[in-house]
Amino acid sequence: MENFNANERVLICPLGWGLGHATRIVPIIDALLKKGCEVIVGADPHVVKLIGLRFPNLNCFVFRSIDVTLSSKGQQTFALAKIALNLISRTAAEHKELKRIVVEKQITTVISDNRYGLYCKGVKSIIITHQLSPIFPKPFSWLKPLGELYIRRKLKRFSECWIPDCDTEPRLTGELSSKAVSIPNAKFIGFLSRFSLVEPEPSTGGLDLVGLVSGPEPQRAIFEQQIIALAQRLKLRSLIVRGLPQTDDAASTKGKITLVPHLPDKQLAQALASARYVICRSGYSTIMDLITLKRSAILVPTPGQTEQEYLANRMSQLKLFSSCKQDSIKRISIDDLEQSCNTKVSQNQFCSSHFVVE
SS3 sequence, 239-299? Predict the structure, then answer.
């Protein structure tokens, strides 16, 4: 891992797909600030708002990645194909834009989270990704070798590739990081969790259910409505975090259900630790957060999003979490929730390492 000096100006740019890429840069920002570096964040508007809430004195500006819209149906093949083409196109454009930003802001190091165009000659360029071997939808599974080749060629342009996972088996990422050994600049850096420095206080008698909603529309809104229906059907005292930090909506309560657009890390960690049940997406950053809190949950992958489907299945096979398909939420019972609550989640099953700046 690269060493960092106190006089460095570090530009961090996460992908704007959902909130996972944004939340997992929180421990990196925190560590760099403690090291004495000057940190600047360039990201999509909703990420800028989220990071600004966590670090109000940080220099943030809008540096867009891609706009992501999924289908309202379970099949996402064509939506994902369109996103992939847009991503490739945007990669070239953002590389050109980055060169101007580096000169203008006198950047000495660039850290990109899954933005493959953000490397620049003459400065340290680091990319964070756990997707070295992408999983394609079945009609396009034959493209997997080409996808791996594309990623390998892009990664060569960076000084280092940081993989947010442990370097011992069994790794959380499984197949997704299986090609790491063949990539010379790839390094496992431990978990990246916004809760790594948060210690929730033990609490009892709290919420029955916490629902974490995230991801692109319209699937984000569909998931939110299904969790509301679940809470109403089972008469659960529930908190639903809508994954909308960019909005100024106030918290609202109807019956036993409270909806909030966003929660600060400490409050969210406390809610997750004290709730009896948790239901959320199976995004990789969310999984790292839950394991850091030693928190069980029911994982619900975004329909048709192959990486989340793979991770949900892998976590079930490792007996870390329960999982179900989105269209099965309406059939979840109290017994199902109780079973998920009894799942034992321990980071020690993997390793005890989190990201550390040298």
Answer: EEECCCCCCCCCCEEECCEEEECCCCHHHHHHHHHHCCEEEECCCHHHHHHHHHCCCCCEE
